[in-house]
Amino acid sequence: MGLHEPMPNPEPSNAPPRPPTYEELAESWSQLNATNNLLRRNLDQMATRLKDAEG
Q1: What residue segments make up the domains of the chain, in order of their start?
Q2: Is 20 within 8 Å of 28 (Cβ atoms)?
Q3: CA separation for the pair 43, 19 (Å, rounded)
Q4: How far apart are CA 19 and CA 26, in angstroms?
Q5: For the whole model, what pTM was predicted?
Q6: At residue 15, what are phi and psi to the nearest 5 degrees?
Q7: Region entry Disordered: which residue ranges (predicted)?
Q8: What pLDDT tens digit does each residue of the chain (55 aa) get?
């Protein structure tokens, strides 16, 4: 199978989507936490700059 060929779908299209595995959920949660931490740091930096600018 070439790299650009789509993966065959092992499930029929009318099948309900399978629930995520524990590993998939843990990875998603980890990515959300990392994004949340980054956003909080950015907000803290913006708040500090705003306070400094206001004097």
Answers
A1: 22-55
A2: yes
A3: 34
A4: 13
A5: 0.58
A6: -75, 145
A7: 1-25
A8: 566 777 776 666 788 899 999 999 999 999 999 999 999 999 999 999 999 999 8
